Amino acid sequence: MICYGQSSRLELYKEQALKLLDNRSAYYCFCTEKRLELLRREAIKCGQVPKYDNRCRHFTKDQVKEMLWKNITYCIRFKLASTPAAFHDIVYGDVLHDLTKSEGDPVIIKSDGYPTYHFANVVDDHFMEISHVLRGVEWQVSTPKHIMLYKALGWDPPIYGHLPLILNADGSKLSKRQGDIKIESFRKQGIFPLALLNYVIGAGGGFHKERENQHLYSYQTLIKQFDINKIKSSSGKLMPEKVLDLNKLEMVNLLQNENNYKFFIERIKKLVSEAFPEWKNDGNLQLDDDHVITTLKWAQNRISTLNDLVKEDLAFLWVVPSSMPNVQQAGCSEAIKLLNAELVEIDASNYKTDWMVPYLKSFAKKNRVPFAALMKTLRSIMSGVKVGPPVAEMMEILGKDKTLLRLQRCVS
């Protein structure tokens, strides 16, 4: 990627502005800020559109020479054509905007020698050999001005296409003041780049109809599918729930490749450490690499973003209780020892919720322990927190080895 800085290209802009002065497509303007402000106020007072009155366009050569000799501050303005001409927009078709109704001759070189955006944009695009310009429809009204500049400089303008607006779900315009639509906001939410790209594309156009279905397309596929003729001229809406579904698809895809494990391990360790700082300081977070990946594989179809893994109800995945419940006081001391002994002998494949629930109920009945008391005690042993999924599901998530490890800390 080549980056252009305006400050390093001032001579180029000056050179092109002099060409416009020489062919009388531009002129020196000596109007002061005070005069321009008076024009603006008078127009508003009269209910007119505030715009420059092109006064300096009509100065004679001698008048211009005299003011330049007197070193009067000036800018350079471009002469807008008095007769508007339509241009072809590859999205909207033939478009006609009469700029003279809304503005006077625009400034192309400011009094400090720097170009305005409209002028620098044209000069830079020409020398970068830009063939197509695709930009938001809000820029469409400026395109006639840019085309006039191209023609005044003797250049062929690029092909223009303007993209429709992307709106909020309620139809309101997106705003840069909305924190939740910034890239950084999506990054903090845990949204993956490809999921975000598919999300935005789904609200616009330029792709085949199957793009309307919930499917995650690769960068390569999107490049191949793109068709400028399929861009819609009507505005599209962002549907926030879709980005979460797409993110879940991307997470599943990424987990299929072991080369991505390092990224997931580092990201989740950081998330967990930041979410549970008090447990981190006590050394009670379970964050070995194998546990992280095993847990993520279990969770991939249950969560939408990695951030979901550190919600309160899943804290037990990472937090190893720092203190054990008083099983003697709970009346479950012998029962927990017996349960531990039985679970050691049970095959790891039986550590499933649908098998474990009836087993635990049967165990409680057989050993004459209130089932509710047993579950409360096991929850304390397994997680040390009051919220989370049912105990049997916790045991399935943790698996045989980690379940026994937590139980044995209590009975030893």
The SSE string, one letter per element, is HEHHEEEEHEHEEHHHEHHHHHHHH
Q: State the total count of DSSP E strands.
A: 9
Distance between the terminal alpha carbons, to the nearest Å? Answer: 63 Å
User: Compute the gyration radius: what is it?
Assistant: 34 Å
Report the structural category: mainly alpha
- Tell me, rounded to a whole number, the average pLDDT: 88
Strand content: 5-15%
The largest beta-sheet arranges its strands as 1-2-5
Number of helices, counting only DSSP H or I runs of 4 residues or more: 16
Overall spatial form: elongated
- Summarize the biggest pleated sheet: 3 strands, antiparallel
Oligomeric state of the chains? single chain
Fraction of residues in H or I helices? 40-55%
Low-confidence stretches: none
What are its keywords?
two-stranded antiparallel sheet; mainly alpha; 412 residues; 3-stranded antiparallel sheet
Structure description:
- There is one protein chain.
- The protein starts with 9 loop residues before the first helix and ends with a helix.
- The strands form 4 sheets. Strands 1-2-5 form a 3-stranded antiparallel β-sheet. Strands 3-4 form a two-stranded antiparallel sheet. The protein has a two-stranded parallel ribbon with strand order 6-7.
- The chain is elongated, with a radius of gyration of 34 Å.
- With 412 residues, the protein is mainly alpha-helical.
- It has helices spanning 10-22, 33-45, 61-69, 117-127, 143-152, 183-189, 193-203, 219-225, 240-255, 261-275, 277-281, 289-299, 333-345, 353-366, 371-382, 391-411, and strands spanning 26-29, 75-78, 87-89, 93-95, 107-109, 132-136, 159-163, 166-167, 236-237.
